[in-house]
Amino acid sequence: MTDAPSADIHVDAELAAGLVASQHPDLAGPVTFAASGWDCALFRLGDDLAVRLPRRTLAAGLVLHEQRWLPELAALSPVPLPAPVRVGRPTREFPFAWSIVPWFEGVAAYSVEPAWRAAAAPGLAAFVAALGTGAPADAPLNPFRGVPLAARDDVVRVRLASGRLPDAVALTAVWERSLSAPTWHRPAAWVHGDLHPANLVLAASGALAAVIDFGDVCAGDPACDLATAWLTFDVAGRAAFRAELEHRQETDAATWDRARGWALVLGSAIVDSVGTSGALGRVGAHALAQVLLD
């Protein structure tokens, strides 16, 4: 299996270069393929910029959310975020909005061993705490992120019964505990929504250099982002992340129980969709293994 669903529209460096040249000619320069994510593809533009193009129809609206909200979130964040430098218009050739964003030097966290990611724990905790502030009334909502875990119960049960997840009986017990935790009743917080190692850029020291891919950004239960404790870290890194976060904000046991459930939601979605052989698949498998350790 591959590490992402099939694209709805073909995107390549030639397309990206043409869009930049026609709409932002002052920024035109060498364009090379950098990465293809679940919903968007990224192309490096010169030394300091990148072009982000939706590759799936479902991502078209998500890019608009990024364009609207990332400048405000970047002002809150203690680490760099890819707030658009320029926005691109749909064309006959390419029917979606697109963005030119900063290029961040570093390595994707999913390309290194989980034990090495512990150095990113303080920075990631600071980021999560900063976004954990109340979201404005017009912040986007997302039916798949930041919602009560009960809203994801049906799909998780299908995955647990599919035979594609390891240790399904033990994972079911984790899921039941998370479902029983009190729901979030405080004002909705900003939620990144997809805070796993493929969306974290690390510096050479291992420290967090940037957080990327805000397509799922929404207002909701911040436990959704705390799931990164299991998605990103091993036991030691998770302890460091939790200690730093609790130093920065009060976080009750129920929120951590829901966060563990969110790690199961996201980990199971990855494994069910793309298996465990690729880099992203290993992120999903790691998350499912980690939720069984706590």
How does this structure look, described?
- By secondary structure, this protein is an alpha+beta fold.
- The protein folds into 2 domains: 13-102, Phosphorylase Kinase, domain 1 (2-Layer Sandwich), CATH 3.30.200; 107-291, Aminoglycoside phosphotransferase (APH), C-terminal lobe (Aminoglycoside 3'-phosphotransferase, Chain: A, domain 2).
- 40% of the residues lie in helices and 14% in strands.
- Strands 1-2-3-5-4 form a 5-stranded antiparallel beta sheet, with helices on both faces.
- It starts with 12 loop residues before the first helix and ends with a helix.
SSE layout and pairings?
Blueprint (H helix, E strand, L loop, with lengths): L12 H11 L7 E6 L3 E6 L3 E6 L5 H17 L9 E3 L9 E5 L4 E2 L12 H11 L21 H8 L7 H13 L8 E3 L8 E3 L5 E4 L6 E3 L2 H4 L1 H5 L2 H14 L4 H22 L4 H13 L3
Short description:
With about 290 residues, this protein is α+β, with helices and mostly antiparallel strands. It has helices spanning about 15-25, 60-75, 120-130, 155-160, 170-180, 225, 230, 235-250, 255-275, 280-290; strands at about 30-35, 40-45, 50-55, 85-90, 100, 105-110, 190, 200, 210, 220.
